[in-house]
Specification:
- The longest helix is centred in the first third of the chain and has 24 residues, at 2-25.
- The chain has a four-stranded parallel beta sheet, with helices on both faces.
- The chain has five helices and four strands, in the order αβαβαβαβα.
- Helix 2 links the parallel strand 1 (41-47) and strand 2.
- The protein has 152 residues and is an alpha/beta fold.
Length: 152
Amino acid sequence: MKKNQALSTTIILSVLSWVFIAGLTDKVFNPFTRVEGRERRAAVAIRDDVSCFQKWGTENFTVPYLEKYYGFVIYLTQSCPGDKKQEFLSAMITAFKRSSEVDLFILAHDNDLVYWMWDLDSELAMNLRLVYNTGCNDISQAPMWLDAGANT
């Protein structure tokens, strides 16, 4: 009897802990607060292939923030290294056509996304305002991102 109670208590506490943590982290920012001028801005974010927990955490902390400051948001997650090229290019084209300012957030380790940009019409990339690249050793790509049309 005591064994069953201990097991039941453990399961109940585990589920309650999970619900509490998920409820606490799923909406970090108030989704009802909007920022002025966000309608003219778009954000495209891409996460590389990492552990499921890192993917979950990155998306749950990034998307609400982007939705608060940008009128149009596309978030992509790679499921294996180097995939999602067509989705990325489509997202960039859509963002460029919809918004006068596009910011790109690369939430990835070493990456070659700058080379994917070469497949886009340079006229479209004129709206690329910011590239935020968290990739290790990707500082060398800065001049290429500026050549691709980024302002910063």
